[in-house]
Amino acid sequence: MRICLLIVLVFITTSSYGQVAEQDSTENINELRDSLYIAETENVRGKDKVLHAEPLFIDLIRDLGARKGEREWNIGMGMTDQRTFDSYLGLVEYEFAPLDRLGVEVELPFSFYYPTDSETKTEVPQSRLNSLKLATQFSFFVSERYSTSMAVGYIHEFELTSFKKYGKEELVKGNVYNPFFVAAKRWGHNFHTLLYTGPLIEHHFKDNAMATTCQVNTNFHYMITGTRNFIGVEFNKEFHKGDFDMTIRPQMRVGITDNLLVGIVTGIPINRENQRFSSFLRLIYEPRHKAKHG
User: Fold this and answer.
1) For the chain, which end, N or C, has fewer CB atoms within 10 Å of the first or last residue's CB respectively?
2) H or E element: which one contains 68?
3) What digits encode the pLDDT tens for the residues 62-89?
4) Left (φ > 0), alpha (ψ -120 to 50) or beta: where does 213 sit?
5) In this structure, are residues 235 and 217 in contact, taking their beta carbons and an 8 Å threshold?
6) Burial of 177 per CB tally in 10 Å (0-12, 13-18, 19+)
7) Model pTM greater than 0.85?
8) Maximal C-alpha separation, the chain
């Protein structure tokens, strides 16, 4: 009887120890993966670069602290309920780093509109290639020690007329000037914060009118342990002539392969009179960049 009790006690103790050891082993493996992901970005010869989670809706021109030769393709698709009509967004963008810490981007955003009420067709905007968007971004402060990066940039948009008016009026109907500032901080291995802000100045040629909107976008992300996937939220805020609008955008990014990711975003408007819920999908393809490890 004593032998049986001894065998049972040994079995229970061994099983409990095995479960704890397995749990500890999994945590250690995930922590090691996190460290390796960070090391892939940061422990490379040349200038510092910090691993940051990049927002999915209003994204950056290139990674903060970008290294020469890095490049990325993005394809985006989205839909917004505008009460009397639905708007569909499509975009194609290419971004690359011709020099260390300097990013350049070319983007073509499209908009298509469909009425949800036959009585309001005259109020529906006309579908168009919104603009030719050219942008640049320079990271002037990058510190691996403090896991912090800061950058300044500029976006210039040549606003285009609708498809139906091609050949009937000027192709370029205005400019949008958008200087911006970015600051990002990673807290430990998993938590990421980012601030993106700047004025957006619209200049319409027809009446020579100009309108300025101040954008303040704050971002919070959590990178899933042992992966490059993350969940997070963007708070996209706009101030225009005393009016305040904000859209909250919960989001997640999931890795399909080592260099292909998909981002999923939901838009929840706050204090917007004509905009309801929205959704956005971003496909991100980043060709491998050969870096020299130290």
Assistant:
1) N
2) none
3) 999 999 999 999 999 999 988 788 899 9
4) beta
5) yes
6) middle
7) no
8) 99
In terms of C-beta distances under 8 Å and separation of at least 24 residues, what long-range contacts does 28-37 make, across chains too? 29/226, 30/225, 30/226, 31/189, 31/225, 31/226, 33/225, 33/226, 33/227, 34/189, 34/190, 34/223, 34/225, 34/226, 35/189, 37/228
> HSE on the CB side for 220, CA within 13 Å?
4
Separation CA 147–CA 169 (nearest Å): 50
What does DSSP assign to residue 271? S
Q: Is the pLDDT of residue 137 over 90?
A: yes
Q: Which two tokens stand for residue 35?
A: 């460290």
| Overall average pLDDT of the 238-243 stretch | 89
List beta partners, residue 191: 187, 222
Q: How far apart are CA 133 and CA 196, in angstroms?
A: 18
In angstroms, rounded to a whole number, what is the distance separating the alpha carbons of residues 86 and 104?
A: 32
* E strand or H helix at 14: helix 2-42
DSSP character for 82? -
Residue 86: count of CB within 10 angstroms of its CB: 17
pLDDT over threshold 80, residue 213 = yes
Residue 152 C-beta-side C-alpha neighbours within 13 Å = 3
Question: Is 215 in contact with 234 (CB distance < 8 Å)?
Answer: no
Residue 187 vs residues 53, 80, 282: alpha-carbon distances, Å: 11, 33, 26
pLDDT of residue 115: 86
Tally Cβ neighbours within 10 Å of residue 206: 9
Cβ atoms of 229 and 223 within 8 Å: the answer is yes
